[in-house]
Amino acid sequence: MRRRFITVVAAWLLSSLPLAFAHKVPLPAPVIAALQRAKVPVEALHVVVMEANGSQKTAALLSHQAATSINPASLSKLATTVAALDLLGPTYVWRTPVYVDGPVRDGVLQGSVYLRGSGDPRLVVERVWLLMRRLQGLGIQKIQGDIVLDRSAFDLPERNPASFDGEPLRPYNAAPDALLVNFKSLVFQFVPDRAANVARIHVEPPLAGVQFPSSVPLSHADCNDYRSSLRADWADPLRIRFTGSFPATCGEKVWPVAYAAPAQFAARAIAGMWQQVGGQLVGQAREGVVPANLPVAFALESPALSEIIRDINKFSNNVMAQQLFLTLGQQGRSPATWDSSREAMQAWWRERIGGETPVFDNGSGLSREDRVSALGLARLLQFAWGSPTMSELMSSLPVSGLDGTLKRSKAQSIAHLKTGSLRDVTGIAGYVDTANGKRLILVAVLNHANAQAARGALDLLVDWTASQKP
């Protein structure tokens, strides 16, 4: 009788333990060996493998330091996108309303045009071009006044694009904006013209008042580091130059670059594109606020959220994730701030996920402040698996060895995983298909100075997970 009592109590205690400690399985030997080759201690690895449709009391198939809060890098985007699908719905769209203040006579608007940003994460060149054509569809060819850009939907402090890692011209460092035009980035296309011995340069979008070179000499150099051989000069934002050459062996190349004067980008791009479609502007493109009671002429709608999150997760787009994060903070209040967005995200997590509330900084993972445990991310993925928007999230995740940030993965198994990467962080989190047709959740994060050298250990964890038969 006493032995039975002890057995019952022991079983009860085991069931009440946190999942991270309820089922002790050693790390696979090949994973340990890969970490040793990369000179990364096993203490730097945080991993949990569990059933996608399991409960909080279901034991993990593998758990190693799963309850410790760590920097997740871009795995934070999972929390942002899952929360957005839950709170906004997969069909949510951003609207950029356009206002016309004044009558139109003989193709001339006797007044100004106003554009009010709402945080659209994908207001790229093609869609701005459509906006311009719709404006011309109102009979406007010449604007006697100004094009006024209303960015008041977000209230954000100025941010130095070099502050995170000293790389201000990298598009991933672009700051969010209520009227985010083309990610505040230029796209240079280089097309070799061997007959003329030059590479033709095409730039999108055109920027009013900015000079771009139309060509650069060709060279016979190897195409190892064509960007360095171009010797770009970004010192003067109004006159961009290439003082080097372009290797003919490269073929066509596309180089995205964040504009060196980001605060001026939207105004210059809007004015430049209006001129490109044949429009005239007597005034200037400038910042301002839409006058009260001015009716909307038309509104440009973004793609649906279900499409937006594919860009965010498959290609780990930081500024799009930050736009989405700020949109969560804008619901029920305006303007959105970083604090309102953090509060909204934490409140959602407490209600829907529970457990220890993570630290959210900007929603993208491009931060040294974010903190969440591998177990917390696994619980998030369990919630998403049971939600009505599971299919939308799954389709947004890179597929191992096939697309997005997992295209170069050496894992041999089928998995849908978000990746995370910073200088001293690398991780994966998502769903892995097993040989017997089940689907498991895998979260694995390395926080260490040599983390990038240990990516192979994560591929081995994917294959180990796929070999399990829960």
How much is the average pLDDT?
A: 94
In percent, how much strand structure appears in the residues?
Answer: 15-25%
* Helix vs. strand class: alpha+beta
* CATH homology group of the largest domain: DD-peptidase/beta-lactamase superfamily
Walkthrough of the structure:
The longest helix is centred in the first third of the chain and has 15 residues, at 2-16. Helix content is 30%, strand content 23%. The protein has a 5-stranded antiparallel sheet, sandwiched between helices. A 5-stranded mixed sheet has the order 18-9-7-4-19, with helices on one face. It is built from 13 helices and 23 strands. Helix 4 (76-87) runs antiparallel to helix 8 (305-314), helix 8 packs parallel to helix 12 (390-396) and helix 9 (318-330) packs across helix 10. It has 2 domains: 14-91 and 305-466, 3-Layer(aba) Sandwich (Beta-lactamase), CATH 3.40.710; 94-301, 3-Layer(bba) Sandwich (D-tyrosyl-trna(Tyr) Deacylase, Chain: A), CATH 3.50.80.20. The chain is α+β, with helices and mostly antiparallel strands and 470 residues long. The radius of gyration is 26 Å and the shape is globular.
